[in-house]
Write a structure and sequence with these properties.
five-stranded mixed beta sheet, 1 helix, mainly beta
Length: 154
């Protein structure tokens, strides 16, 4: 991007056109970037050109990944009774999260949930199905991201 190679990690089990919940595979395709969530206590965002206000992650934010729950693949308040991801983490992976528009309009169980573009410490470590990049690369990309811009995985 702009003469810079942005290396990314994908699912530990590779990528697929037949994503299933819990398969550790990244879905192939082009998906809109829906919003920007970030840890305001850890990240100073660069100047952005977004058409929406970034949302600070709080300790009571989660994302439902329970395919039997009505809020499957949606942000939920914590505590939440169904299986979910906690967005406020001790590690730095979710210091910046861009949820991708994968299986979200509408969400269809069990085709996968919580597909995020987020941070990683090491590119060679796979994700649970997300796309991840190093902090410096993400901060380089952020000023160029627009709402619903497509992230292509091929």
């Amino acid at each position: 991007f702009k003469d810079r190679v942005i290396r990314c990690a994908i699912g530990k089990e590779g990528a697929t056109t037949h994503k299933r919940e819990g398969d550790s595979k990244t879905p192939l395709g082009s998906f809109p970037m829906r919003e920007l969530l970030y840890r305001s206590d850890r990240i100073a965002l660069p100047p952005l050109h977004l058409s929406f206000h970034p949302t600070a992650i709080t300790p009571d934010m989660g994302w439902c990944d329970d395919a039997s729950d009505p809020l499957y693949n949606k942000r939920v308040p914590l505590p939440y009774p169904a299986c979910h991801e906690t967005l406020w983490r001790d590690d730095e992976r979710y210091d910046i999260i861009i949820p991708l528009g994968y299986n979200d309009n509408p969400s269809i169980p069990p085709l996968g949930s919580a597909i995020f573009f987020h941070l990683c410490e090491e590119i060679n470590m796979g994700t649970e199905g997300c796309i991840a990049t190093k902090r410096d690369d993400m901060l380089f990309l952020l000023p160029n991201i627009r709402v619903n811009m497509l992230l292509s995985i091929s």
